[in-house]
Amino acid sequence: MKNKKYISGSVLVLAIIAIVAGIFYVQENNKVQIVSRDDPTDIVVDFYQTWLDTVQSTSTDPYQAGLTDNTLLSKALQKKLSQAHEASDVDPVLCQIPTPRRFKVETAYEQPDEIQMNVFSKGSETVSQSVVTIRQLDEGWYIDDISCINESDPNTDREFTFEHEGVLSKDPAFVTDAAYWHIIYIQNIVPDRVVPLFFDTESTCIDQDKKESTCDQNQFTEMQHVIVRGNMTEAGLEVQQVETL
Q1: Rounded to whole angstroms, how far apart are CA atoms 118 and 235?
Q2: Which of 4, 5, 174, 184 has the most neighbouring CB atoms within 10 Å?
Q3: What is the pLDDT of residues 64-83, one digit of tens each?
């Protein structure tokens, strides 16, 4: 009985520490993700500062320090960073050569459950930067993805900040403004995300035969299965491509 009491006490202490730190487990659809109640910008800054400190260290590096296993990273991102380290000389978090001495974080767009932040080298003219996607789950946040972009490269991944498979809808039962087409999709363990779509003369539609044309929204159908690519803004998605599946 005494051992049981000690064990219960240890669990209680660990639970209190986790609550104070603002970090807790969320389980949904049989998947577990650790999230933090800290401010999203603070989460990104803390992770990047720790990563930069270990890169600049003479006695260790982020991989020896186990930073790719940081539990506030999605499982997919943990795997991505580990594989990127083996495949490229470019740091997959800082995205720069040489290593920056300092960095700054700016919010690119913000939605209630998703924020994208750009991380730049502070005081440097480099055109390389990181794009960090941080997502809300339950009452906390976690870092879902990090991508490297180069503003001077016409083939940069910056071409699309959003690329998801889903269905199109204008049904008021699913969307807040039926004047616009929306994409409804599932992101990781969070279902039914809905994003409004904004088209212009540069928006390209690709049919099932892989033929491209300027998008005609009158040709869309309710629950049409598509992949949508474009750049996110605070208002919604500026569509570059809609590919019918």
Answers
A1: 18
A2: 184
A3: 999 999 999 999 999 999 88
